[in-house]
Amino acid sequence: MSAADFNVQESKVDFPNSIQVNTLVYTPSNQANDHITALIAQVKSLGYDIQSVNLLASDNHSFTANNIGLYLLPDNYVPDLPKLEVQAQTIQLANEYGSAQCASFLDLKEDKHFVFEVNIWQEQQQDYQSHYIKGTWQSDQFDNLLLSSKNWRVSLPFKRTFSVEDTLDGKRQMIKLTPQYNAQLQGSYLKKGVEQVNINCVHSIAIAL
């Protein structure tokens, strides 16, 4: 990774018990999406698939800008699932979420609009190209979220769930947006003739408590 212009520092503390899969944790910073996409590709070339990408923030504050935490597990790792406790649902739905599965970032804006950003590697240009998908969202009191876009023939429903995990520095709250539309039908929600990358994946955010 050093060869890919990442300044690597090995952590000397115990591995967090809350990490159960290959995980990337990042903070908001300049060109964060490009760096994350490049790092995921680099790690994949080493045989590790990143299964969880989380934005680490607390309200309007973030921690240690321009840093990325990377947690990698061996193939024979057997998770010791931690006990999770549910905290009061006080985190605003309007927020920024990330997805390792779709390599996308979802920004739910307070004005009920949303923007998906997906970075796709372009072999000819040897660089990443950003694709943006825009639309509107609505929610109800049962934590159901509905995303709509002019290029979709149906709206995409998501369910918001909460959990609390222990970390080395205390606790963090995980908020996940899980798709309720059949994830196996990739692209079937699009209007005929529309080509668009799939974004019907779990998106999440981690909030330090």
UniProtKB/TrEMBL annotation:
Designated name of the protein: Uncharacterized protein
Species annotation: Litorilituus sediminis
